[in-house]
Amino acid sequence: MMGRKESRPLTSVQGSTTLIASDAVVTGDISFSGNLDVEGRVVGSITSAEGKESMLRVMEGGHVEGSIHVPSAMVNGAVKGDIHSAERLELSDKAEVDGDVYYNLIEMAVGCKVNGGLRHVSARVEDLAVQREKRAAEEGQ
To answer: Which of 15, 53, 59, 75 is most buried by a 10 A CB count?
Structure first.
């Protein structure tokens, strides 16, 4: 279509990847940096570590019962709680969200379900640039 840019899929960020396997149930709040892949079930909130680059993926068959606060996320499973994404959120075709979604950039595939409100929250570009510069300086040390 004219004027429409092709989106690129969300990819992993640098750093370690934590996997919650399909037969695992984690009860309690999770704070992480790097990548977190949820194939199992999390009962509690998920938050990325302050100032760290982080990516959450709720895979098909994965379930989260609690709020999510991350820079970037890809959801293709079920979330029962609010999602707060400061940078980019991708809702794939099998995504089912029962809660409000707060996003800066969002991509929604045909077939995803959101039972709640969609609220655009613009991340200040200057803040994001400063965070990236800090990360680059830390990695260079």
So the answer is: 75
**Positive/negative CA dihedral, 7, 13, 35, 133:** negative
Name residue 35's beta-bridge partners.
Answer: 17, 55
Q: How far apart are CA 22 and CA 103, in angstroms?
A: 27
Query: What angle is formed at CA 55 by the lines to CA 100 and CA 89, rounded to 5 degrees?
Result: 35
Region of 138 please: left (phi>0), alpha (psi -120 to 50) or beta.
alpha
Q: Where are the domains of the chain?
A: 17-140
Quick: pLDDT tens for 3-19.
Answer: 445 555 556 667 789 99
